[in-house]
């Protein structure tokens, strides 16, 4: 690997770490009026389209199952989500939002929509925004492929 490649990797990682921090900060601000944290919003958001087991949520989010389990249990305790039986796996219950959880997410929507519009404007329009998403997904897929290859060679 050349020094230029290493520098590019370092700059990319630092930019993504900064971006992660920025997204967490803005997410906390958006979620707070709804009585949520960014992490609660993230887990609830993962199960809005369909109920998922904790391990499935962790895969989608790219974090540990234990982290998701802790948040899921808190959401259930607060009445924002519920566990339901999983026909595919007796012990791995499915997490689903309750009406209260959906209502909390709905309260975030106006701020979320405003931020999306402002970001689109800052990036130069819808096409530029979509290109940003494509590049980030491509980077994520490349890292997934490298990790899979490393796991296969280790085991």
Lay out the secondary structure.
Elements: H1 3-31, H2 38-47, E1 52-53, H3 54-61, H4 65-77, E2 81-84, E3 94-97, H5 99-123, H6 126-154
Antiparallel strand pairs: 1-3, 2-3
Helix pairs in contact: 2-4, 3-4
Characterization of this structure:
- The longest helix is centred in the N-terminal third of the chain and has 29 residues.
- This protein has one domain: Orthogonal Bundle (Arc Repressor Mutant, subunit A).
- It has six helices and three strands.
- The chain has a three-stranded antiparallel sheet.
- With 155 residues, the protein is mainly alpha-helical.
- It is globular and about 50 Å long.
Residue share in helices?
Answer: over 70%
CATH class: Mainly Alpha
- Approximately how much beta-strand content do the residues carry? 5-15%
Please summarize the sheet with the most strands: 3 strands, antiparallel
């Amino acid at each position: 690997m050349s020094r230029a490649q290493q520098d590019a990797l370092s700059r990319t990682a630092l930019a993504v770490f900064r971006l992660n921090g920025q997204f967490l900060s803005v997410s906390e601000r958006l979620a707070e009026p709804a009585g949520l944290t960014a992490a609660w919003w993230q887990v609830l958001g993962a199960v809005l389209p369909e109920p998922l087991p904790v391990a499935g949520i962790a895969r989608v989010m790219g974090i540990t199952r234990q982290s998701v389990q802790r948040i899921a249990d808190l959401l259930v305790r607060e009445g924002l989500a519920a566990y339901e039986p999983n026909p595919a796996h007796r012990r791995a219950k499915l997490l689903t939002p309750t009406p209260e959880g959906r209502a909390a997410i709905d309260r975030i929507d106006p701020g979320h929509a405003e931020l999306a519009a402002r970001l689109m404007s800052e990036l130069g329009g819808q096409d530029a925004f979509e290109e940003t998403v494509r590049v980030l997904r491509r980077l994520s897929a490349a890292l997934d492929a490298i990790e899979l290859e490393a796991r296969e060679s280790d085991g």
